[in-house]
Design a protein that fits this description.
about 350 residues, alpha/beta, Isopropylmalate Dehydrogenase, 10-stranded mixed sheet, two-stranded antiparallel ribbon, 12 helices, 12 strands, globular, binds 3-isopropylmalic acid, binds magnesium ion
Length: about 350
């Protein structure tokens, strides 16, 4: 059966980078016998501009039907003053929640070709390969009650609630253990169990799930220490599993360790492996429309989609190999050029497609 892929380019550089992933998809269809139906829809600020809300009904309906979703980026300064419900971020958060995309995989890989791009000494990060598994549909991002209330003395007070039910902890823990089994079989669960009850339960449930995975070495770490260890000795980590908020923060740190956030893909999966795939970087409004953004994180997100949602792991590897080839050729967009000559977004996408064609002829 033909798979259906929803393409949600969004805002800022979203359109440009998704356009390059579409080139790759077309090449896979022409030269590799891959078969998929592609359909585009508006999200984020683009959804608000066209339909008056960041997750238009049409977009949600398409995503519900699709086998996988390729997402560009959302957000821009022109939307910052909108009420919270209408802001672009809300489109993404609602999509994650509506589709129950609870398991967010954020790899942080240092490409050998870009060894000097990290802000850490190269001997600390050489060969870095961490997978952060972030819980994505619960915790303080979605917990009720939340709001800003007026106290008796007239002063305003903001409040949010960090909630985790046992089943939510259990399913993300299983997701992380399963991934650890495919890697180096080491899992670090990050919490704040010395202060928060919600973390105490988190730790207890993760330890309970561990009994089913005797081959995985489980460690627990407080989030403050984990953030320190990530910049002190990042290679100690294989897989990290953590809550929505801690994962948001730690995944940005981990991305920076590689020095090339423009290279990092991510996947957000539901219980059945349906997923939303997006580059870790954001909408970069400052360079939008300038044909200078790095499309590789989006192309690598497409590779993750082929592997995790479309049962095409060989094609996934071919796309990753093609990306490796263009890096070997010395092609760099401005973000990874380290001041040297750089290529444009479309040149980079074109080079990946050309490398793919060569691989397809073998
Ligand atoms: C991310 C982003 C989002 C988040 C924002 C855009 C809502 O920072 O995907 O990490 O906080 O989850
Ligand atoms: Mg974030």
């Amino acid at each position: 059966m033909t798979k259906k892929i929803a393409l949600l380019a969004g805002d800022g550089i979203g359109q440009e980078i998704v356009a390059e992933a579409i080139k790759v998809l077309n090449c896979l269809q022409q030269d590799f016998g891959f078969n998929a139906e592609l359909e585009t829809a508006a999200i984020g600020g683009a959804g608000y501009d066209q339909y008056g809300k960041p997750l238009p009904d049409e977009t949600l309906a398409l995503c519900e039907q699709a086998d996988a979703i390729l997402f560009g980026a959302i957000g821009g300064p022109q939307y910052d003053q909108l009420e919270r419900e209408l802001r672009p971020e809300k489109g993404l958060l609602n999509l994650r929640s509506s589709l129950a995309l609870f398991s967010n995989l954020r790899p942080a890989i240092l490409y050998p070709q870009l060894a000097n791009a990290s802000s850490l000494k190269s001997e600390l990060v050489a060969g870095l390969d961490i997978m952060i598994v972030r819980e994505l549909t619960g915790g303080i991002y979605f917990g009720q009650p939340r709001g800003i209330r007026v106290l008796d003395n007239g002063e305003r007070q903001g409040y949010n609630t960090m909630l985790y039910a046992e089943h939510e902890i259990e399913r993300i823990a299983r997701s992380a253990f399963d991934i650890a089994m495919l890697r180096d079989r080491r899992l670090c669960s990050v919490d704040k169990a010395n202060v928060l009850e919600v973390s105490e339960l988190w730790r207890e449930v993760v330890s309970r799930v561990a009994v089913d995975y005797p081959d995985v070495e489980l460690e627990h770490m407080y989030v403050d220490n984990a953030s320190m260890q990530l910049v002190r000795a990042p290679r100690q980590f294989d897989v990290i599993v953590t809550t929505n908020l801690f994962g948001d923060i730690l995944s940005d740190t981990a991305a920076m360790l590689t020095g090339s956030i423009g290279m990092l893909p991510s996947a957000s999966l539901d219980q059945n492996g349906k997923g939303l795939y997006e580059p870790v970087h954001g909408s970069a409004p400052d360079i939008a429309g300038k044909n200078m953004a790095n499309p590789l994180a989006t192309i690598l997100s497409l590779a993750m989609m082929l592997r995790y949602s479309l049962e095409q792991s060989e094609l996934a590897s071919v796309v990753e190999t093609a990306v490796g080839k263009v890096l070997d050729q010395g092609l760099r967009t401005a973000d990874i050029a380290d001041g040297a000559a750089s290529v444009s977004t479309s040149e980079m996408g074109g080079a990946v497609t050309a490398a793919l064609r060569v691989l397809g002829q073998r």
